[in-house]
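User: ok so my PI wants both of these folded by tonight, can you help

Assistant: No problem, let's get them done. Here's the first:
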Amino acid sequence: MGAVVPEVFMRRLAVFLASSDGHDPAHAVLAASVGTELARRGIGLVYGGGRRGLMGVVADSALKAGGEVIGVMPRSMVEREWAHEEVTELLICDSMHERKAIMAERADAFVALPGGLGTLEEIFEVWSWRQLGFHAKPVGFLDAGGFWTPLLGALRGIVDSGFLPASTLDDLAVASDLPSLLEALEHRLHSTSRPARGESPR
């Protein structure tokens, strides 16, 4: 008799997004809808712990809807009063490296909403970790309004140039709405296949 494989559920989702509002009010509307929907589904939010910009919006909306919100922030940023003091749990660390490691440990999957350099750095790091086999947690982009479409096109160009395996790009979950993206992440979370692997690190 074969071993019983335990069911895997998405308990918490790490969301990377901007600490500013951006120019388009639709981004704040999107962040609010994400926080509300995660709470409605009983999925905890793991994020960077900020109270401003889209970070504050997603946290506030999740809290208002009764959801769990875990913020992670370096001590130096907390001392600058950037932290959201009303989250369910605020984890204070010593560095940005530790912050990302804690977020990766606490979450079952990762998603990028609109953001800038910090958002890109965070989502690309956890994606590369998956591609190299350091974890098997799925990674996705919420491409609402086509925000990430230019970036995804650039990534396809990198595939065409031979610097990124097509399987790695295909492994990325992409959707224009949160329910579809969560479904894609759940599918990858339940998959028995290992994540795509690229070149070995040198």
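One down. Here's the second:
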Amino acid sequence: MRIRKLTGGLVAAMAVTFSLMSGQATAAPAPAADTAVAARIVTYDASGSAEFRSAVDRGAAIWNESVDAVELRPSAAGQRANIRVLADNGWPRAQTTSLGNGTVWIGRQAVTEGHNTIRISSHELGHILGLPDIKPGPCTSLMSGSTAGTSCTNAYPNAAEKSAVEGYFGGAFARTAGAAPLNTMIVD
């Protein structure tokens, strides 16, 4: 499991605050070793993704390699997943119901036109993780989607996209301006 580490300075600051609140003046303890906070687990069910199953699993793995605050895992048999991934003949799209929850469609239309299946999967999962489209955009931006062209195979989020997802899922799971709207169909 990937984890996010908090600095020892935060632990020391909390210790000073609590000691001052108790009315006793004491020296702050030495900073503790890094304290780990577990990533938020978001499960996905790709059983309906047909021929795109391996692309969906790779898209999830890319997000797991890229961010610490959230981890995408396949759902266990009989478990209700946060994300449902389906294949259909339309254009790829995602419908978010809340941060980390929704439905993704890996549309065959974009694949037929020559778009990369792993990039599509990673991009659509990005919507469920709170990211909006950034169109038009360069190939270096995962969320530029199809506007990067069929020759673009980059399935990795850039630094700004990683940072946004870390912010959405880190700490108090607060959403910020610019996030993908919830309860909205995002057609790429």
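The mean pLDDT is 82. The CA atoms of residues 89 and 108 lie 5 Å apart. Good luck tonight!
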